[in-house]
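Q: Hi! First time doing this. I have a protein sequence and I read that you can turn it into a structure. Is that right? Here it is:
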Amino acid sequence: MPTLSPEMTATEPGAEGAAGTPGVRIVPNDRGSTGAPMDTVIELQDLSCYYGSFRAVRNVDLKVEKQRITALIGPSGCGKSTLLRTINRMNDLVPSFRTEGRILLDGQDLFDKRVDPVAVRRRVGMVFQKPNPFPKTIWENVAFGAKINGYKGNLDDLVEHSLRRAALWDDVKDKLTQSGMALSGGQQQRLCIARTIAIEPEVILMDEPCSALDPRSTLQIEELMAELKRDYTIVIVTHNMQQAARASDTTVFITMGEDRAGYVVEQGETMTIFTNPKQQLTEDYVSGRFG
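A: Yes, that's right. Below is the predicted 3D structure, encoded as structure tokens:
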């Protein structure tokens, strides 16, 4: 596993449904059911995030386990997207942004002064709310990051492999020279996922990846996530309670205090969070009493 040394370079893989729906059906997930300990990939320790004098997130402690899907749920404005963008250091691009506490990736502090934030973005990929393919061909969209990073292998093979992993190859194999912008919304989002996995990240962050998609495309993305977690650790922000229940292994409920700063109310196995939460606030949110 490569360390996040200043010498590493990478390319950034790209530039919050109604919440609280009652009657969510929970299906037990096949991972983690044995009670065996899981490996922690990302750990947030007493993390607070600020934009200038405003504290957007306060004193967050949470762990993201390897090859599992972790869903962040909570009302709008509670800091879910801020957490994602802090994990892969995209918020470094906001001049007024600063953090307190630590974020560890495989035990290494991502905000250590010796860590190159671009290297972080290579190991922690990002998929956004709105599909954002580059104004290039489908082939170039997938190959772009690898080429920038000096990939020495066969790019055609890499493009095919990445598109297959994103369940898009059969749709586009005969039109790789066409613009990625010409694809449907769901296909564009899968293209963005293919572009992300082409640079072989360890973690994939997804910020409301289905909010702009129709139900059929949403289901395709959820099925794709279930396949991808065999090789990747996934963190997804979603307002859709059914989606969190269907797609995730672990759920983290975040809400806001009187100071408007987001904080973690409860985290645990998704089935527990939706059927037997420990906190009344969690029960109220997942049952649709507020949100």
